[in-house]
Design brief:
The complex is a heterodimer. Chain A is α/β, with parallel strands linked by helices. In chain A, 40% of the residues lie in helices and 20% in strands. Chain A contains 12 helices and 15 strands. Chain A is globular, with a radius of gyration of 20 Å. Chain B is of the alpha/beta class. Chain B has one domain (24-249): 3-Layer(aba) Sandwich (Rossmann fold), CATH 3.40.50.970. Chain B has a 7-stranded mixed sheet with strand order 2-1-3-4-8-7-9, with helices on both faces. Chain B has a two-stranded antiparallel sheet with strand order 5-6. The chains are: A alpha/beta, B alpha/beta.
Chain lengths: 348, 250
């Protein structure tokens, strides 16, 4: 059965279905539906909701809950996510799983609350200090808000690494029919590394400080191996009409939805456009983009920012590929007509 | 022959990194003794902050989570909510708790989180080389107050035990000292009280421990002991500022 559900609510229900019993968060628009839903519904599954005093406190409560072996989540937006960056770095350094949701708002500064994708670089290329990566998933529908949240918990536990859901406010706020049950049964893995008290085993330690000569280099290289494994095994993307395409549009989140409409209209006019939609922003579908661009020599990146994923696409593309960009920053949303006009201009 | 003094089981047999003359090791020993005496080693988890306290895991034979600077009470909150039947304590210095971590400790205390905080106040940032802390005494010279702390520019030393005692969620708040045997005995009683409060689910408990830092105070260990007695205690009075009874709690 499918139920008409708002993106943020689908995400929150996805967290519950994933076995997340601990949510800590601080209010910020446009993600307030998530904490409000969980404040109401976590108690019914024996869960705990804490309205934290700050995003710094939220992410550190997550650190504590995760170290104890629980599935825990926080959500925020823009400035709140910036405040949490220290915590992401500690989670990655301490190899602790956590799910963090960023329903992006416009920046820099207090910015605004209209849909944007301005936090791509912060999410995908760091944000916090040190040599680490977040797993980043980019839903483009209410159904994916539900499904990818469950996936985020799975990947976070599998790799003992923070996983972020990066969505724009459009995906968070619109409503679509959703299946609110997991596609596959949720399995929460055993966590023998968790801190539960040194009973019938030696004392355990979770830390990110390695002061001995060479220790941190070994740690960084171990983390790198983990990120390489993610790049081998966890890349997700969707393609549409790429078989015969003369141009490949690359977009994630809301712009990918608009691009699909544009492609439909373009095809009616005989223009052969196709789409590649990254679902995982880290690990990024570089290999797929490289392969497709060896055949499709024109690429148009569409984002709701001034060109952030663009750099990753440029690095991934086959030599000789021409990469074009169309961006609407600051709350601007591209219309199908705008994308169609860009495509026609490139192909003419 | 009867052994009258042995190493607590919870205290590992390893040299500490603390400077000669520092009283911080005594704080570790007190915590270890109390954990042993209450029989809670197997269900206790320590969460040190950043500073000289960070190496707690090297010295105590318990599960340990290293928290970001100032955030141990938030980490302890998350952990305690997952494991309400374990004994969770944060272990922080004065830079960690009284400067960068004020928000986290105040709100953990105000929520009445059933955790314990051991708070070491030595009036300087020790590990980073003796910079001014919020607890630095007026006139005290540090590397960042080379002319002495001046209330007009750096404000006054902050009294955390008294401040936290004003919050409804706090079950126990006390200040003790570590520089003489008499005070060490009192300190141990306070730590025992704090952990017992947690075992009895009374709410947030905190023990502030005045400790010497002869290295960064630039004095000898014995002079540091005199300084603690004659300069710190008059500003940071020892005592119990809040002690909730079962009746208050209900």
């Amino acid at each position: 059965m499918r139920v008409l559900t708002k993106g943020n609510i689908a995400l929150a229900e996805g967290a519950i279905q994933a076995g997340c019993k601990f949510y800590f968060g601080y209010p910020i628009t446009p993600q307030n539906d998530i904490p409000e839903y969980l404040a109401k519904h976590l108690p019914r599954v024996g869960g705990t909701f804490i309205p934290a005093e700050s995003e710094i406190a939220s992410i550190n409560m997550i650190l504590g809950a995760s170290a104890a072996g629980a599935r825990a989540m926080t959500s925020s937006s823009g400035p709140g996510i910036s405040l949490m960056q220290e915590g992401f770095s500690y989670l990655a350094g301490s190899e602790l799983p956590a799910v963090i949701v960023n329903i992006m708002r416009i920046g820099p500064g207090l910015g605004g609350i209209a849909p944007t994708q301005g936090d791509y670089n912060q999410a995908v290329h760091g944000g916090g200090h040190g040599d680490y990566r977040n797993i980043v998933l980019a839903p483009a529908s209410c159904q994916e808000m539900f499904d990818l949240t469950i996936k985020a918990f799975e990947l976070a536990d599998k790799y003992r690494n923070p996983a972020m859901i990066l969505a724009d406010a459009m995906v968070g706020q619109f409503q679509e029919p959703c299946r609110l049950t997991p596609k596959e049964p949720v399995v929460i893995p055993q966590k023998p590394w968790a801190l539960t008290g040194a009973k019938s085993r030696p004392a355990q330690l979770i830390k990110s400080l390695f002061l001995g000569p060479g220790e941190m280099e070994v740690h960084n290289l171990d983390l790198k191996k983990k990120y390489d494994t993610m790049e081998q095994n966890e890349v997700m993307y969707e393609t549409r009409h790429l078989d015969d395409a003369d141009i490949m549009i690359i977009a994630f989140g809301t712009p990918s939805r608009i691009a699909k409409t544009a492609i439909q209209f373009l095809r009616q006019e005989g223009v052969r456009a196709g789409l590649l939609r990254p679902i995982t922003l880290f690990p990024f579908p570089s290999k797929a983009i490289h392969e497709y661009s060896s055949r499709i020599h024109k690429v148009l990146v569409v984002e709701m920012n001034t060109g952030q994923m663009l750099r990753d696409v440029q690095l991934a593309c086959h030599n000789g590929t021409k990469v074009y960009f169309y961006g609407r920053p600051g709350g601007g949303i591209p219309y199908p007509d705008d994308i169609m006009a860009q495509v026609k201009k490139i192909l003419s | 022959m009867q052994a009258v003094f042995t190493r607590p089981k919870t205290l590992k047999d390893t040299p500490t990194h603390f400077c000669p003359g520092c009283t911080h090791g005594i704080a570790h020993r007190i915590v270890a003794e109390v954990i042993d005496e209450l029989g809670i080693r197997e269900k206790t988890i320590g969460i040190p902050g950043v500073g000289c306290c960070v190496f707690l895991y090297k010295y105590l034979d318990i599960d340990v989570l290293e928290a970001p600077h100032g955030r141990a009470p938030a980490c302890a909150t998350g952990m305690k909510r997952v494991l309400p039947d374990r004994i969770i304590f944060a272990y922080q210095g004065d830079g960690d708790m009284a400067a960068i971590g004020t928000s986290e400790v105040i709100h953990a205390a105000n929520r009445g989180e059933n955790i314990t905080v051991i708070y070491i106040n030595n009036s300087v940032y020790g590990m980073t080389g003796g910079q001014m802390a919020p607890t630095t005494l007026l006139g005290q010279q540090t590397t960042t107050t080379p002319y002495g702390r001046n209330f007009r520019t750096e404000g006054y030393p902050i009294r955390m035990a008294e401040m936290l005692a004003t919050l409804e969620g706090v079950a126990y708040s006390a200040r003790v000292a570590l520089h003489k045997p008499k005070y060490v005995m009192q300190a141990k009683k306070a730590v025992e009280k704090a952990f017992t409060m947690q075992i009895n689910e009374m709410g947030f408990s905190v023990v502030e421990m005045l400790s010497t830092c002869n290295t960064n105070w630039r004095v000898s260990p014995t002079e540091a002991i005199d300084k603690l007695e004659n300069e710190m205690i008059p500003y940071f009075p020892l005592g119990v500022f809040k002690e909730r009874t079962g009746k208050d709690f209900l």
